Amino acid sequence: MANGSLSKGANVALVHRSAVEQGRLHAVVRWSDPRGVVDVDVAALLLGENGKVRHDEDFVFYNAPSSVDGAVRLLGKRSAEDRAEDRVAVDLEALSDEVGTVVIAASLDSDGSGFGDLGELSVEILDASGTPHARFDVGDAGAETAIVLGELYLRNDEWKFRAVGQGWDSGLAGLATDYGITVDETPDLPADAVADQAPTVVADVVADVGAVDPTTVDADDAMQEIVAVVEEGDLIAELPPSVDASEVSEAVATVEDQAPEAPTASVPAPRPKPSRAGVRTRKKKSTAATLPALSLAVDPSWQPARLFSVIGVGNAEEKERRATSTLLSTMMAVRDFGRALVARFGGPAGSVEAYLEVPFTLDDRTVIPDGVIRVARAGRIWTALLEVKTGSAALRTDQIERYLDLARQQGYDAVVTLSNDLAPVGDVHPLQIDGRKLRTVSLHHISWSEVLHEAQMQLAHRGLGDRLQAWVLAELIRYLQHPASGAAGFDDMGAAWVPVRDAVAASTLRPADSKIGTVTTAWEKLIRHLSLTMTSTLGVAVTPVQPRRLARDHAARAQAAAAELAGAGTLTATLRVPGASGNISVVADLRTAQVRTSITVDAPREGGGARLVNWIVRQLPEAPETLTVEALFARRDQSACETLRDVRADSGVLLTDAGAEIKSFRLAATTPMGTKRNGVRKAFVPSVNDAVEAFYARVVQGLKPSPPRLPTDVAEDAIVAVDTTN
Q: Mean pLDDT throughout 603-627?
């Protein structure tokens, strides 16, 4: 197999039919979306000799993310540097002999957009070790809303890949119909009745995990993990004049496809549902179960009973064991949550079984991973070994490589590591591992922050129709949020924070200082954690944005961040909230010990200056009077800035030139910055989190233009925390 970049219609050989055991391939579809409005979904079709599907079950897409035999599976969306990606796993060895072609396609879930609106669109074929063997860049897409990117096909006993690039303007339904799928576009069936009422949950718990809204939500709307990439000029207008666009930091935030559970021999088959002719290409909807509050407590000090107790959690080993058991048992009990996590690790949809501390023998030594996860699907069993750390415990390279050797020996599929180490960029493992050990076994990392995020998304936004499962998941969230669990999430800037902070204050910090990289990396982790938290709260994918030249180059990004911190004493980031009037700029100024949050809002094209000023002021009823309102005029050398208090009293204070045309408004808030590396009181991390969440709640969510309903459920404690520090 040879690497290659293909033109449309070209093909490349991948693997001989006699060596299909090497044919575990991933088709990775990547795209960039400068406007942040397009949602791409990948699909696959299994074709017979006649170039058509054999039956409707040969259509693998978001409503059916695995083929019947498990040979073709959707692995879910994730970020990949400056673009989003969606993956399809194809196991050539497991394919039926009747299948001679696997079509890799994509479609759009958007209003009025075509593939031509994307900045980039490509498909790449990787082998089991992650080595690329073919790539096709689509350069001529237009108004098409569905497209065949390429196809894996068997010719003369050799599996090959062909670049196709053929589009449809009739969407996924039109593409599927042309390949022989019977498409049913009738309205959705009524949702099944909610299961019998389960134990109730105290109101404070529901508030902690996010209000569980019984309205119907789209399972895919809330979990896309995209790193938005913009041209540098687009960011300059959104940042304070002292901050350059190249200094914008990045973090990432994931959508996971979910599938119906395959019934097992020990579980009664579900009741038959009304039949439906054909396949629905509309995305499935989920209905969230409500959790009523406990109301019979005599005093607020009464603590509700916990399903997962935090009493008696002693040393680090006990925390690790209890957290592992709590998580794995919940993955088995709450099937959609378990599937969502397994999908992140490349596993199939199916019944999840998990086991604790299973002993194995490797080279005459006993090896005991913290857990074993197994999923049965279509006659095959997918298995992953799990290594867990809690608190400040760190993963060890030698231990993980030993587990990789064990997984290879046992014929297992993956090794998963779980700790409080949140990667600044998604899908990047925190350890440097010998690549030779990853040829047949995949390695994945997830942080406790991401586990909590996944649980909150499932409970509050994707929905669980079963109240008992909703209660169990709410109890997992309660457990993970308790300090005794050891699943702290990101709350520590690291040992380098204090000396770097002091060096900034003394103006002695230099870009080449050894400790500066540790702090800038911690800042990226903080921003990623913040985006995950806001996504969980709002139910939409909150994502960082950054200039294109930095998105692709980690070294350049680190160098730019170091230069900014040493020169200006600031750490910066920009967050995009779907539906908001603009991006949110975040600047932590270590010299002034302040956190600055701001947003730039385009002004209406019609109306005079006074009318436009009144237009923006009317949208800020909850904003603090100390908010600064800056009018940006068509002439770049003109601007006027006053506090909201003064603008409310007299709109004319911003109209220094009656004839000047207002182009946009920049709204900015300043709050005290915590200086401690960790903790709650006067700590840096919570001060940044509270500043951003309060700015969104008081300023951003009420701004126009916006969709009919912008997310509003930002925690009140963030506002309180900011108020008490002023």
A: 90
